[in-house]
Amino acid sequence: MPQNIPSVLVVGAGALGLVAAYSLQEHGQCDVTLVVKFDYEKVCQEGYTFKSVQFGNFSGWKPKYIRKSVEDTKHEYDFIIVAVKNLPDGPEPVNDIIRHVVERSPNSAVILFQNGIDIEKPLIEEFPGHVIMSGVSLINCTNIDRVVDQKNKDSIQIGLFENETIKDIATAESKLKQFVELYHIEGMNTVSLDENVRLSRWKKLVYNASINTTTALVQLDVTRSTICGFKQNLCRPIIDEIYAIAKADGYNIPSEMEDEMLNLSNGLYYRPSMCVDVDFGRMIELETIVGNPLRMAKKYGVPAPRLDTIYHLLQMVQYKTMEKAGLIIMDVEKGVPHKTFN
Amino acid sequence: MPQNIPSVLVVGAGALGLVAAYSLQEHGQCDVTLVVKFDYEKVCQEGYTFKSVQFGNFSGWKPKYIRKSVEDTKHEYDFIIVAVKNLPDGPEPVNDIIRHVVERSPNSAVILFQNGIDIEKPLIEEFPGHVIMSGVSLINCTNIDRVVDQKNKDSIQIGLFENETIKDIATAESKLKQFVELYHIEGMNTVSLDENVRLSRWKKLVYNASINTTTALVQLDVTRSTICGFKQNLCRPIIDEIYAIAKADGYNIPSEMEDEMLNLSNGLYYRPSMCVDVDFGRMIELETIVGNPLRMAKKYGVPAPRLDTIYHLLQMVQYKTMEKAGLIIMDVEKGVPHKTFN
Predict the structure, then answer these.
(1) I need a surface site. Which of A162, A333, B215, B299 has the fewest CB within 10 A?
(2) What keywords sit in the KW lines (chains A, B) (predicted)?
(3) H-helix or E-strand spanning residue A11
(4) CA dist B326 to B155, B323, B339, B342, Å?
(5) Domain closes at, from A162, A195, A228
(6) What is the C-alpha to C-alpha distance for residues B69 and B34, in angstroms, rounded to an integer?
(7) Residues B218, A217: C-beta atoms closer than 8 Å
């Protein structure tokens, strides 16, 4: 690749990864390589269809380079966007997925377009000194069978994770500045510099730990769940626990965030992402959205009985999903489960 | 009917109702009338098949009289056994189901072969002065398509509910004694006089409020749930709350009950009754098993955040079931639900 154009690897071809790939390829003057795990052949032949409030409607779009896996990439990259689900309890934790390309690209920045809290910790431990950024976005977008349906304009906060292993902060900050400029498209999206990444992640957890988890457990859309009184009876008490854990962690989530998040899907028969994952028999981001806050609660001695209940119920859901997907095989005679991965 | 043979009405042809009907008809010298809501025609023609550890294996058994509904009965009865599910939130609360026959049978005793606590309250209010008894049984038995599969011998505790509206206690006690004698079959079942009905019901809630509810929410059998750690992480903390509420209510559940109930289904890929109800899209006994203890917790000021979380999640499950069954119809345009019953 020419030296003067930044190279970006986007790992994960979900809705979020595709909006990022399109934005950077078409507006950011980058060379974009997209890793497409499923549908690789079809994507190579037909590309993607966009029905996008931001980019318009068109078919046949492809990123400059398409690869079937991270192992199939050969170059050094300037930016590595991770837009796959974060499943430390699954067969492919994020550090395993990106290890080769990160080691090959010592000057790259890794940007995590993912939910949850403490998600940088395993990466900082495995890649000390490497720049790791956070992308927290609110986007109402799906990718079903290579059709990207984007109902809201992209709005994303990008910042540096707190990282004691970084010695050269100036370089990290200049990488951050460069990425924000590449990603920003004047008048089309909102890209802001996130000065307090951890607070942003606590804020988003207000939604993800309450509405996402409860609808996933029962597999019911937000309108019907609201009729059942779940905001008052389940979400608010869970959110109280999130506020208390965040506070013990040193972060004051603004009080207005509670109503803002609770009203986000008002009037929509909306099935939140975790609910959809359960619908389709896919693993959920349980550990980063519920497990990590709960581990902090234990560490800080903050009572969180409701979050704890939700967590252990969702662990059972996760087990079911993994057994159905063949990730766990049950020795029925002995009543003993075996993981099919390490 | 001849005056000298007691007449028993069994309302509900589930496993429990059928074991009772068979025991009383064949061994208790009673005239048994069974109310069969579903399968009435087939039962009249073919009767039931028993595969019973207690009674043996045979086909074509019928009770003396079969009725399609309580409204179809005309006689006065000595005993009215209620063996339908207790669903105060459904279209047919127990008091509505049995009102006609209770009013026609002023000297009868009503015996509730049902789970949960405070289940006598609506009946005492509606039928003051009427004798109401409790039957708490542990029986591993199913009735699927008129095949009664009974794996344990019947073991039941029968007693009088506390009831301030009863003036003539001697008569109530003689009814109780008569019923226990009718139901007992020497060497075949265990029928004991329950001196403390409410404590028996608290004891059974240890199982029903923990193992039954959590497996129902996630729809997972007991062996797999145990592998997920649900006994330690979910059941024991919920059981702690049940013990505390019972204590505030004046009842000390013996401590050994916890392990006894938790080990009841060990080694079995067993799906508890509430889990099976959800599997088959049937309403669950949420109010009598979880709602009533929770209302007591509020009344006594006992914290019960885990039971509260489980309750509100199961309310959403109940809503889903009711909408699927046509008991609730959603005006999708307006986002407003309508009950199809009062």
Answers:
(1) A333
(2) NADP, Oxidoreductase, Signal
(3) strand A7-11
(4) 37, 5, 9, 14
(5) A195
(6) 9
(7) yes
- Over residues B155-165, the pLDDT tens digits come to 999 999 999 99
Last residue of a domain, one of A138, A161, A195: A195
Q: Note the Cα A325 to chain centre separation in Å.
A: 21
> What CATH number does residue A165 fall under?
3.40.50.720
**One domain for residues B151 and B218:** no
Mean pLDDT of chain B: 95
* Residue A141 structural domain: 7-195
Instruction: Say which CATH number the domain at A213 has.
Output: 1.10.1040.10
- The answer to whether position A2 is within a domain reads no
How confident is the model over B267-315, as pLDDT tens digits? 788 899 999 999 999 999 999 999 999 999 999 999 999 999 999 999 9
State the complex-level ipTM: 0.94
On whether any CB of chain B is under 8 Å from the CB of A296, the answer is no
Q: Which two tokens stand for residue B170?
A: 């001697």
Nearest to B312 among A233, A308, A316 (CB): A233
Residue of B nearest to A268 (CA): B335
Q: Which of B127, B137, B138 minimizes the C-alpha distance to B158?
A: B137
The Cα–Cα gap between B33 and B101 comes to 12
Same domain (yes/no): B216, B190: no
Shared domain for B142 and B224, answered yes or no, is no
pLDDT digits (tens, 9 = 90+) for B70-101: 999 999 999 999 999 999 999 999 999 999 99
- Are both A226 and A184 inside the same structural domain? no
Residues, chain B, total?
342
What is the helix, strand, coil percentage profile of chain A, to 5?
45, 20, 35
